[in-house]
Amino acid sequence: MAGGRGVSEETWDVAIVGYGPVGAALANLLGASGLRALVLEREAAAYHLPRAVHFDDEVMRIFQSMGLAEAILPVTHVSPGTRFVDGQGRLLLDWSRSPDVGPQGWNVSYRFHQPDLEAVLRRGAGRWPSVALRSRTEVFALEPGAEAVGLRFEDLSNGRIGRARARYVVGCDGARSLVRRWIGAPMEDLGFHERWLVLDALLRRPRPDLGDHTVQHCDPDRPATYVRGTGDRRRWEISLRPGDDLSALARPEGAWPLLSRWITPEDATIERSAVYTFHSTVARRWREGRLLLAGDAAHQTPPFLGQGMCAGIRDAANLAWKLAQVLRGRVPEALLDSYGSERAPHVEGYIREAVRIGGLINTTAMEAVVPAAVLRGEATARLAPVRPALGPGPAAGWAGPAGRLLSQPRLSDGTLLDDRVGLRFAAVMRAGFAAALPNELLDRLSAHGAVLVADPAPSVGAMLDEAGAQAVLLRPDRHVLGAARDAAEMRALAEAL
């Protein structure tokens, strides 16, 4: 990536504060859109130990839109899902996932090692000459103005103070976000705050008996979660009690007594032992003028659904195309208000479900939702997946399916839809419907940046059946902007562009 030469004289389109997975994803999306982005990151390199370990098919589809899915696949492991067992190991709830590719064009659940993923994302951002990185740079002040935001920062390698200007600043700077403090955005507390010990281990010898499923141990004495990672990596998250010695447990040698029910030092080495307080919070404001939030700066979730990083990557996808439209003068700046209005209810839905799943690990809560026959070991219950809806946002034409994420069809030539479309709008139509539309209407759609897809593949028809429409106009983040059941509604979609 470019070194940010001349940042004191230039005004960037976007400054990204923080270069974790969310900041790197946003840098990729902005770079692919041709926007000039300056990334300011305090650390010299990506953190070398495990943190996030899961992403889903929707996030892989976002990676696909960046052109990075094929590079990410080799550093992942497809997860077969989650099982909930009681203190005696009896199966209570089964949340298994199909090993087959799902409707989004990808497997439903992937495990990964975060340093591996970040390496791919950072290499990906380096493809774009319009993206510049300044590492070992700590932002300490923001100066919002009418046309741009001034940023003041310290070069931690030499103590020098620098300045830059950007038309928008996005805080991807974590739970203690500086950008959020400048916005003055309070966090809404959703009521979950618990201390857990997170242990990442590397197996010394094969332990196939541990299994590939994530296992939620619903043990009232000591709830715990087991996660199978990539290669020989395994993770345990173990609930802590008020009397636990946190300083001892934060050292690998002190954590072995809690791991002894599963593995011993002969089986594995502990790579990381860390005490975390899991929170459930959502920012009440995601934007103040030219300042915006994404990732942990805007929300925190317990890990029981594995949706923390996923939510931040979705933030980046939602925000990137809106910034591109605004910065190119195609739409009013008010479009950016829909970023928070769409994302906040969506992420809150996932957080509340994660809190509920966390409650299920408690036997008392389990009794409230699991049939007695299951608890007696006479049957097994199944858990249904959750996909919250986006909150209110832009819509055009027939708004019935607006804001929905439909399946990703494979076209007649074998190409997945997103590979054909890229980070552009897409007008996906039934072939017969498209053939009957006036050429000037189709020309208008194309002239305003929409890729026309009128493919006879059955999967295209199935996607349109989901929408209940003859055509849909998909946003660059692949959510539906609007749909059409007739030519008049199709014209309204064209006018919306």
From TrEMBL:
Domain of life (superkingdom): Bacteria
Species lineage: Bacteria, Pseudomonadati, Pseudomonadota, Alphaproteobacteria, Acetobacterales
Domain FAD-binding: start-end pairs: 13-353
InterPro entries membership: FAD-bd, FAD/NAD-bd_sf, PheA/TfdB_FAD_monoxygenase
Keywords noted in UniProt: Oxidoreductase
Transcription regulation as UniProt keyword: no
MF term (GO), any: FAD binding
GO terms under biological process: 3-(3-hydroxy)phenylpropionate catabolic process
UniProt-recorded name of the protein: Bifunctional 3-(3-hydroxy-phenyl)propionate/3-hydroxycinnamic acid hydroxylase
